[in-house]
Amino acid sequence: MDSFTSPSTKPLYKGTQIVWYILGIIEVLLAFRFVLKLLGANPDAGFSSFVYGITYVLATPFLNVFRVSQVAGSVFEWTTVLAMFVYWVLAIGIIKLFLMGKTVSTPEAAVELEKQENN
To answer: For residue range 27-82, what is the model confidence (pLDDT) as tens digits?
Structure first.
């Protein structure tokens, strides 16, 4: 049985799709936060308040890592950029874990092991 027709292929594919979808939502929300802060959006406005409220939980672990760069009401929030990068790296790691469960044939495994030995 090759790895393309394995019964585990479809669930793994769906799992990776879900991870990419969740990452996309997180990245878009954090990008909105970054742009709103950069452009000096009114934090009391409905949309800004909504975005800041939702993204606060996502940005909190990173809030004190860097200083905030502020010029005339515009805020360059380095921590949001860091959060976006960290969530992207986490998504890649989760997908790599999913793919470790992929069924492979013995010849495929042999080729991959040889590649790893040569690195």
So the answer is: 999 999 999 999 999 999 999 999 999 999 999 999 889 888 888 878 899 999 99
List C-alpha distances in Å: 109 to 2, 6, 71, 98, 118: 11, 15, 55, 16, 14
75 bridge partner residues: 70
The full 3-state SS of 10-39, as one line of letters, equals: HHHHHHHHHHHHHHHHHHHHHHHHHHHHHC
CB of 54 closer than 8 Å to CB of 29: yes
- 4: nearest Cα among 98, 108, 111: 108
The residue extents of the domains of the chain are: 9-118
CA distance 79 to 65: 7
